[in-house]
């Protein structure tokens, strides 16, 4: 289906959502309440006893999406969630070694230049190399599989990578996102038969890859395997949490990387300023960069996250008892409620008349200012790309380090622009990102200030 979900949202949903702060929307086979106003979002995040997590495994258990991820650390609640967090959490919030990130980024840089050299008259389709890069980081740091990470960045990527590329084409089709009841007909719809086959194939390959190697001690993957072997997790719990670790830890950063390349290609002045900061600080040539000396880099990443949050819409909370959202919106028990991160992050009351503009300097010019702005808008639920409350994203630290190292290397070594023949549009459904993004890369001489 040839639609742009951003344009559909802006034309048909955004005006009323901005006016009312919340709207009723049909999605996932039923009517839901979708909120945008930061005060409403803050209430959802803080009052988890009322707005309880309820993922696809509860909402649409017969769907391909439910089979894909099952019940996991993101969708579970109560004691089940606490058990998953105790097992996985320490492996996500630990301190990560920087040098392997930098090495992967240098390899990515080489891959992009090689691909550009093979098709000099058109831009590079960035999805595949960015998936390799984000997968390698996930395998190395989260699942604790450095040898597999090395293979996926090599010339012959592992089959897991190829299956995932194919699977993505089947998962987020608009008609099945709105009418998942059609998945009940999976046995007679060839594309859904194939989708389920790919889900099972990917899950089997992922489990085999993790169990074949000895995971790095203390990694989330290693802790997950040990919990399963010790009988703390069932086969299904092990499988579901391994899947969500891979998908959330790889897919979401990749989406952000894609949107970041897109925004920097559209705003060469930001590329130039970033390059000046990186080169004047000499941080691109040291093994452990001091990120406090690169405030514009951090501000740029946060601004990309603000404008294009990887999960732009999330409806995964169910009202446990009759309540009033914001003190006046009556919600019966059983109502599904969610928020629109794209809209909340661009709320004009919170962000002003330039809410839709790409302006990294809105975050500040020093490390202290950027950090203070971030804490302020996150606490007020005006910036929810990492969600918030007790269920805030555990992978935030990992994702930010991954983005910092990637941009540090790429901006230092490359300059890029949009392929003039690429059609500027977003994906039709599912995670928000530029569809089929093509970018023209060229090396950037370290001795000159490149003009992007």
TrEMBL record:
Superkingdom assignment: Eukaryota
Names of required cofactors: heme
Molecular function GO labels: heme binding; iron ion binding; monooxygenase activity; oxidoreductase activity, acting on paired donors, with incorporation or reduction of molecular oxygen
SUPFAM superfamilies according to UniProt: Cytochrome P450
Gene3D superfamilies assigned to the protein according to its UniProt record, in alphabetical order: Cytochrome P450
Pfam families assigned: p450
Binding annotation for heme: 393
UniProt keyword list: Heme, Iron, Metal-binding, Monooxygenase, Oxidoreductase
Family the entry assigns: Belongs to the cytochrome P450 family.
Stated name of the protein: Cytochrome P450
Species: Aspergillus carbonarius (strain ITEM 5010)
């Amino acid at each position: 289906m040839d639609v742009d979900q951003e344009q559909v949202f802006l034309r048909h949903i955004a005006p009323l959502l901005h006016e009312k702060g919340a709207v009723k929307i049909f999605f996932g086979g039923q009517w839901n309440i979708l909120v945008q106003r930061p005060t409403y979002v803050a209430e959802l995040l803080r009052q988890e006893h009322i707005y309880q997590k309820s993922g696809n495994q509860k909402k649409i258990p017969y769907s391909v999406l439910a089979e894909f991820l099952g019940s996991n650390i993101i969708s579970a609640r109560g004691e089940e969630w606490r058990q998953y967090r105790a097992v996985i959490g320490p492996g996500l919030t630990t301190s990560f070694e920087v040098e392997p990130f930098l090495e992967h980024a240098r390899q990515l840089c080489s891959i992009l230049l090689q691909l550009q050299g093979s098709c000099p008259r058109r831009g590079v389709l960035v999805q595949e190399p960015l998936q390799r890069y984000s997968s390698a980081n996930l395998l190395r740091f989260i699942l604790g599989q450095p040898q597999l990470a090395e293979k996926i960045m090599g010339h012959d990527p592992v089959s897991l990578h190829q299956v995932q590329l194919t699977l993505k084409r089947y998962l987020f089709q608009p008609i099945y996102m709105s009418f998942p009841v059609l998945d009940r007909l999976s046995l007679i719809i060839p594309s859904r038969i194939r989708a389920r086959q790919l889900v099972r194939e990917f899950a089997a390959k992922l489990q085999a890859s993790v169990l074949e190697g000895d995971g790095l001690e203390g990694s989330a993957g290693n802790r997950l395997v040990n919990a399963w072997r010790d009988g703390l997790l069932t086969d299904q719990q092990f499988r579901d949490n391994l899947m969500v670790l891979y998908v959330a830890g790889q897919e979401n950063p990749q989406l952000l990387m894609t949107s970041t390349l897109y925004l920097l290609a559209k705003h060469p002045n930001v590329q130039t300023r970033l390059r000046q900061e990186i080169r004047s600080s000499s941080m691109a040539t040291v093994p452990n960069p001091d990120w406090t000396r690169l405030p514009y880099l951090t501000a740029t990443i946060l601004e990309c996250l603000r404008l294009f949050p990887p999960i732009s819409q999330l409806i995964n909370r169910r009202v446990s008892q009759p309540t009033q959202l914001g003190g006046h919106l009556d919600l019966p028990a059983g109502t599904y409620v969610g928020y629109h991160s794209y809209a909340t992050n661009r709320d004009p009351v919170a962000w002003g008349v330039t809410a839709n503009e790409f302006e990294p300097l809105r975050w500040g010019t020093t490390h202290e200012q950027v950090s203070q702005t971030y804490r302020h808008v996150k606490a007020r639920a005006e910036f929810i790309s990492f969600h918030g409350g007790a269920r805030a994203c555990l992978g935030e630290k990992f994702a930010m380090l991954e983005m910092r190292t990637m941009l540090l290397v790429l901006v230092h070594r490359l300059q890029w622009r949009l392929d003039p023949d690429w059609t500027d549009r977003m994906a039709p459904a599912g995670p928000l990102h530029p569809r089929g993004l093509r970018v023209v890369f060229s090396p950037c001489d370290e001795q000159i200030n490149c003009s992007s």
